[in-house]
Amino acid sequence: MPLEPRRIAAAALTSDPVRLEAVGFGYAGRPEVLRDVNLVLPRGSFHFLTGPSGAGKSSLLRLLTLAERPQAGRLTLFDRHVSSLSPADIPQLRRRMGVVFQDFRLLDHLSVFDNAALPLRLAGRRRDDYAGDVAEMLRWVGLSDRASERPPALSGGEKQRLAIARAVIAGPDLILADEPTGSVDPAMAERLMALFKALNRQGTTVLIASHDEDLAARSGAAVLALRDGRLAEGVPA
Amino acid sequence: MTPFRARRSDLLPRDAAGETWLTGVVAILCLLACLAAVAAMASSRAAQGWSGELGVQATVQVRPRVGETGPTAAARAAETLASVDGVAEAVALDRDAAEDLLRPWMGETALADLPIPFLVTVVLDDQAPASAVTLSRALAEAGLDASVDDHGQWRRDIERSALMISGLAALAFLMTALGAAAAVVYATRAILAARRDVIDILRSAGATDRQVANLFRVRMGVMAVQAGALATAVALALTAGLRLVVGSDGPVAALPVTWSDLGPLLLCPPIAGLVAVAAASVAGRSSLGGAFKRR
């Protein structure tokens, strides 16, 4: 029997990987995208971030991936206030995250294998050391036979799976995924959701942004609803 | 072995922002730098040779006294000078020899009526050459009215000219190196701008500022070493060809090319690589630092 999505209970969560306090954000010359957002994602939690297009889901994820900085309020990641981060701190925090972008952001000049291995390579691991892990991950997402191909030769669904493989290969503490099942068939979507759940069971905090409220409902994860830049039901700091 | 294991990937795409053209530009600049270096070495060597030759020679002009002929006075001066310590040889120049020296400038017709001075050419001991003062004193003691020219003014002019030529060649070398560095800085910034998407992906996967900068340093360093090697090969071929065709005298007296000039050209690739790495570091630091500051 499918589980009903749980709504976040106010003040029920403890401070952990992600904390937003009265966060506001907007792009230059345009209306504010996020207003007074309060949110805490405890360690090991699994949340869906839902809302219509333009609600601010992607902008919120950009804040969490340190691609942008809030213009108001306070954002804390892994107990570090973003406003006090030095440039050298940013990569260290990003290495604790696995990010699945809506537009995949794959490196077209690298093979599927090398795209999946990118976080491990950047973390300084040797190819001989990580080759087995990457091969296993590619087998899991069904891309073993495409390992030596390059992303332009992949279908949308295959690119999606590769992006997820790259996001989770290094065993991050926090997974942020923007529409991670948007380009795959229902069977693969269920399989990918199972992967996220498996990672979550191991203690990884997961936040998935999706406009697919049915998927969120079926997942049994907590749901954060974003409307016009505000969390409909958020968690006060 | 899995098929992908044989592939060594580069995190930066190949031929971003016209790197082939950049290689050509840097190779041309390296070639100019090599040729400037050869010119500097050859001109410096020529100047040293001329200066050395002039340093062991002196010319004495003899004015015959009343009742004494010019050739007699010159012969007596040569005999006097030959006995001075520090003089290897002293020879009185007869009128025919003096006319031979002047003929290229004065022409045949003017020579007959020209009052040609009576000269003595003196070759000095190259280990302990006699000074102009010593020669003048010896001539005076022998009762000869003569003036000694040790070629000092001319030697100083040549040394000054040689220094200027070497300086200009060094300046040309420096300017071409700066030009290559500027080209690399421009290209690095262009690639950074053109490949902002790749850099963003690398950063989102945890790449540090240093890692991204190193990608550009390595890319530009390898490119410059390749360009420098190409330029060195061409410069070696040109210099060696010149040496073989015209011999050790060079195409002109001021450029006596020798085989030893080829050795320093081998420094071009590593120098080009170091310059490119430094230039890429400067460009990368400013561009990447700026990107981080904005965030």
User: Helix/strand/pairing class of chain B, anyone?
Assistant: alpha+beta
Compute the average pLDDT of chain B. Answer: 82
Please give the most extensive interface between any two protein chains, plus how many residues each contributes.
Answer: A-B, 35 and 27 residues
Q: How much of the polypeptide of chain B forms β-strand, as a percent range?
A: 5-15%
Shape, per Cα inertia axes of chain B: rod-shaped
CA(first)-CA(last) distance of chain B: 43 Å
Number of DSSP strand runs of chain A:
11
Contiguous uncertain segments of 5+ residues of chain A: 1-14
Report the helical percentage of chain A. Answer: 25-40%
Sheet having the most strands of chain A: 7 strands, mixed
The spatial strand order of the largest sheet of chain B comes to 2-3-1-4
How would you portray this structure in words?
The complex is a heterodimer of chains A (237) and B (295). With 237 residues, chain A is α/β, with parallel strands linked by helices. Chain A has helices at residues 57-64, 89-94, 112-122, 127-140, 156-168, 186-201, 213-219; strands spanning 6-7, 18-26, 32-41, 46-50, 72-77, 80-81, 97-100, 174-178, 205-210, 222-227, 230-231. In chain A, α3 (112-122) packs across α4. The longest helix of chain A is centred in the last third of the chain and has 16 residues, at 186-201. Chain A is globular. Residues 1-14 of chain A have low confidence and may be disordered. Chain B has 295 residues and is an alpha+beta fold. Helix content of chain B is 67%, strand content 9%. Chain B has a four-stranded antiparallel sheet. Chain B is rod-shaped and about 105 Å long. The model of chain B is unreliable at 1-9 and 290-295 (pLDDT under 50). Chain A binds chain B through residues 65-69, 87-88, 90-91, 94-95, 99, 101, 105-114, 118-119, 121-123, 127, 131, 135, 147-148, 166, 170, and chain B through 2-5, 7, 9-11, 13-14, 197-198, 200-209, 211, 289, 292-293, 295.
